[in-house]
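Allow me, if you will, to draw on your knowledge of protein folds for a short while. The matter concerns a single protein, recorded as an amino acid sequence and a row of backbone structure tokens. Could you please explain, in whatever detail you think fit, how the structure tokens follow from the sequence? I remain grateful for any guidance, and I place the record below:

…
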Amino acid sequence: MRRTLTLSLLAFTALLASCSKPKQPAQQFLSVQTARIGDATFNPSVEAISMLESTTNVALRPETEGRVVKILASEGDRVKAGQPILVLDNVQQSAALNAARAQARTDKLNAERYEFLYEQGATSAKTRDRYATQAIASRDQALASAATLGYKFVRSPIDGIVGDLDTVKLGDYVQTGQAITGIVDNSTLWTLMQIPATQADQIKIGQTVKVSSQTSPPVSGQGSVTFISPYFGISGSQQSPNTLMVKATFPNLTGKLKTGQFVKSQIVIDQRQALAVPVQAVFMQAQQPFVYVVVPLSKALPKIKASSSVPEASKQKLEKLPASTPIVVQKPVVLGTLQNNLYPLRSGLNRGETVVVSNTALLSNGLPVKVSNSANGAGSN
């Protein structure tokens, strides 16, 4: 009995001792997100800053002088070809037209009367012809008076949008040929790009051209190369002698791009598939791009142990971790030009490798991490 009691006390004491020992805290590793290296479509391009122009952009100019008595449109209005914008004082011209039309009607009746008399043998051919000639002259005079009156109505020569009309007000006297405003049709736009001679051989008629405005958010459009200058520079000028003028035309489908607007133009010279690296994965050291690749500890530990750049204390800590622990390994890479937040990979990584895309500034070679997501593909087919 005493022996049983003693054993029970010993067991209870051991239980108390085990409960009083502090628990070892779980390993806390830096949490990172990753992406898997895969294919993406890249469109190598030649870029330029250029200005948009409308294929239909005219100045509204009166064909006669006069005082403005009516303004029939406002700036920003969409107008049709032939629609009157301004009316100039036309009292005299209206009166002259009425008189000319009245005379033309009288002379026409006289010509018809003398034609009838001639057919009846009551007058001579000479008299008939004189009245016929007078009727024709009166008709032509009426037409000329109508044209003169028509000049007093300043009409839009094209379909388009009315520009700034602040330069003219009611009562202003305008001169023949004076620029009143612009009428612009932005439905089709074009732009001239100056392409460096080193890239000129890559440009072909029909290549896709993408334009993007410098507004926020940007407005985009797409067209094609429609003209390539046969010479470098500007004809008869020393300006930009080592550039090639290239013209692109495109439909303004949204209507949000405007004549005179500066845009970033991209001539797409090719389309190719390549392994892609997310921009978030790349960091620079001494102008050399690097990424952190996630690998299991068992794969990287031999190289880490052989490395002189990793402290011995860190090596010893790594040796105590499970072989499947994910760690990051720094790798140099060779990349192409950034496009849509992806770099085309030239060398340094293999398809399917996993790279870190978050917290890269907090990482170091050989650091254990916690992957908080399953790796997604960096590119898309």
Summary: Confidence is low (pLDDT under 50) at residues 1-21. Residues 221 and 324 are 50 Å apart (CA to CA).
